[in-house]
User: Fold these one by one.
Assistant:
Number 1:
Amino acid sequence: MVRCILVCLTLLLQFSLWGQIQLKPLNTINKPGSNGRTDQFLNALNLPFWDDFSQSRNVPDSLLWESGSHVFVNNNLAIHPPSQYVATFDGTNISGNPYALNSLFNGAGDSLVTQPIDLSQIAPSKRPQVLLSFYWQLLGRGEIPELEDSLAVMFWSIDSTWILQDLHPEDETLFSLVGGLDQLNLDEDSLPSFQQIVIPVAGSEFYHPSFKVKFQSFSSLNGIYDTWNLDYIYLNENRDSNDFSHQDRTLSAPPSLLFSPYYEIPLTQYLSLPSKYIIPQYTTANNLYGLPSPLEYVHSLTNQTNGNTTSTGSVALFRLSALETGRKVEGLGMEASLINMEDDSALIESTFTYNTGDKFLYEQITTEGDTLFSNINLRANDTLRQYYQLNDHYAFDDGTADFAAGINFMTGKLAVRFVVNEPDTLTGIKINFPSVNPSSSGKGLELMVWIELSDSGVLHRQAFQIVNNDRQDYNEIIFSQSIYVRDTIYIGFKQFTEDYIGVGFDKDNALGMDAIFSNTGTEWEQNTRLQGSLMIRAVFGEVTNSILGTSENRLKAHIYPNPSDGLINISDTYDHYFLYNLSGKMIADGDFNSILDFRRYPEGLYLLNLQRGSNLITQKILIEK
């Protein structure tokens, strides 16, 4: 059992979690946007209002939502959603920090507010048929809200006040969704499931030109992470409050891995063993309609680099029953015919298309029997696309951080294991450091490569200074020496602070959890608790200044005394030395001497590089006075 991997419940528990891998919440660092669109609403919206977030990425669409930049739109944190992508509410602000670190009370956290919607033209006789519906899920792949946490729905009244709405009319005392294990709705596989709520817009005070809906989470503001997932928000008239169905068929889950257990691999590694990746991809299809529906789909793989493509053609399965969700839809595996011999990289587009026959959302049927349609295209969630690079890196993660995972232990180490199909040359690392702890930016650590997780298994050390990233960016570091890898390699770092150093954590690929290792003392332990992948990528390329990735072919140096006052002896002979501080800055270099004098430098840890020919070895030295 891994003793050092726990879920972080609150920042107030940091002392009790000292030395353990902690999973911490993030929130989007992207600014509110509209997916590249620059046009803005000059007037209020009209009914119907509909958003299933399938066309948004990272943040809600600002053409539909007045505010909500703290809410994370993603396709990872929900389990079996009605359609692809959901809006996730948590307990942190836009930078991933607690709303009020020292608060001991619950308060308002994330919120999502619609653009103004004009309800002034709806006749009083039709107002009982104006309904708001949405799907919600407790927990998902995050952390369960506790009993004192809640998610509320509010309506904006004509007198410019927010009115809390009763989500369960049969219970007059309950005015919001509450957390706690008792509220956790499980499906037949004991997984958290989505439930749908329908709320009438009842009250003349809401029928004005600037009506708005607000979703507001209430949680502990000192950093406790609580997850609420929302999807398929729909407000319109001419609805029956007892009809929970929608004439919509959807694709809901991200595709399975194309290069399992990795998300992406180097092109050369794919070509060395293409038969390993012929396992078909799959996704899931849903029928939100109250009647049975046929299931016909197409899956295609296209190399966007050279135009090569392959397709299943039209595939028909047994029809979906009424309101059925989670039907498995299977497609193709990766095919070598997509790659040309002269290609040095590839961008693979995987596309599932559900041939639903969905139309525009209809509003009403006239007395003449004509159907009036809105401008909402229900085919928007019938196509699911995912892109994969075949370039120079191995990656378990999909390129977006959902959380941060790390430790707050002096000299603690994190590592990720990679296994190559054929021998290759490791040239560098990509690593995401999200700004969950802004104070970590600028701190020094030691990047490390191991052939085995032991002191004698270290192949490379290199000083590095942390630069915080947003959810989808990486620090890219080229190693000062390349490493010949025969099969297995471990890549990670050692930290020199008790402050929390968080690495981006992607919840989407649970197969990456077994590749995570930590050391907060003298022993390495394999992750068995956190389901997901660290955003640490192994980069391969051409040989530059290479060492062999075998324990018997590495340079070794005996440095003594260590610690010292700065005057050290070296037992072997080298050509040159380089001394770095932990920020990665070279502070001294020169021709080699068996006695080196660094007594003029302050106390602390330093990295000493010793060069012989084209080979380089890095040793850590500690100066104490």
Number 2:
Amino acid sequence: MHTNAELGPRPDCALPARRPGICRWLGLALLSAWITGCASLPSEVDRPVSSALASPLQTRLGQLVAARAALAGTRNDSGFALVGNAELAFTSRMALIKAAQHTLDIQYYAIFADDTTERLFGALREAAGRGVRIRILLDDFNTSGKNAQVLALAFEKNIEMRLFNPLPGGRGSMVLRILSNLKDVARIQRRMHNKIFVADNAVAITGGRNLGENYFGQSQGTNFVDIDILASGRIARDLSRSFDGYWNNPLAYPVQSLMTAQEIRQLTPKTAAVGRDTPPQNLPGAAPAPIPAPVPPFDAATEAANALPDSTDLSLLAWTWAPSALLADKPSKIAADADDVAEAQDTAVDGLLQLMSQATTDVLIVSPYFVPGKVMMGQFAELRQRGVRVRVLTNSLASNDAPAAHAGYARYRQALLAMGIEIYEMRAEQAGTLRSFGAGSTGGSKGGSRASLHAKVVVADSRLLVVGSMNLDLRSKLQNSEVAIAIRNRTLSQEAIRMIEPALTHGAYRVELADGQLVWRAPQGSGLKDSTTEPDTSLALRLLLGLFGPLAPDEML
């Protein structure tokens, strides 16, 4: 089972091929039945209420934001910087950790235990050691097996960690996690998908990335091509209010209410642990600077463990000040009685669709999982009837880490093309070409040859930019909680377009209809030939999806 990406609701499934495999699965099923009968969530949980820093303007980061705003001479209360480079995505987070004086609020769908997160965790321990209050809110689905070791941070001074919508039992492996909770499939499906990283309630990062080596260009296998946005000022405080709503929600369980430190240590050998009591020896031990100093140019020959620089200078970034709004789901969206949430409240996806409907000239959509459904298809048809150009960049079957989601998208592909939607599918094999958004940048990747699209971005009329955690699919609309920032600014919008268009031209197949048949046009300069079947895939995979893909409802893909 693949465990590097947006798993939770999208597990890859494989049928057992031999009798020993069947016996093993039957044994796991019986074990899970026993576990299910025993495991339950605690009924009485102590959740001390806390909130974001009340006076961010008194911090160094707050003063940096105020100084940059004064220098720009702007009346806008929020500043932004796009992050399309994997290296900058890592170093900007490290910079926020090192610059924080009072608080760090961190909310993610998944944090994977590997060398990259170990470096982040080492910086978090240093911050906690100098008195910074750290709150980490993590969706519970991926906290099993080796990845359960991230929970050990909850037992360190000045660090609090809560798990959102936890699943009882089955924490030894992902398979056990799913099997032991089959009695409550609805709970498994509803996940907190938000990604928020806020320092001193003054500067924040949000976007598509989770925390792990695949998201920072450091995997030897598949690396995720993504976009984040750094946000400062009022919009950062809006993100903090959203964080507080989830942190203080009854669905957020302190780790201590679910597991002991000893139980966490028993899940994985110490040699594989992240969040252990002793900080890793290769982490820098010097005291952090208030605003980290510039780093030397990236050296591709640097050994893998030190491939990413340690920090970046936030004051040197080109900040753009612009009107903005937060699109954020309420925690109640994934409560146990939230089946009718689409009718009970507006969602972040609803807000995004409303903004898209106002486009007059063009819409550019980047969505790794793209399953539009009937309502969204109607909106696309209305846009096309008004002459609005619509381009979509999504994953190909080969680059998609969730083939079932691709099967849902494939249902709509011909209809989308027939109405004039331009579709581009990310090419999986990207060695030496595209592994990060941005002209010619590999983002510090240490050699992974495969790319998988993971960014969630919409640009409308070259002046409205939306960056967030949600895909354009029914899972993001109905099942997951999501967050995004909508920014009305031509400069930022055009910068995003410049980041994305090389992927359309050189990193993706353009899908077309020719005499009623699908044709994949090879990327420019790739040396590849056009294809009439899903490129870079096996016949077995195509047949499997053809057989089982039509059986699953859109909202489950």
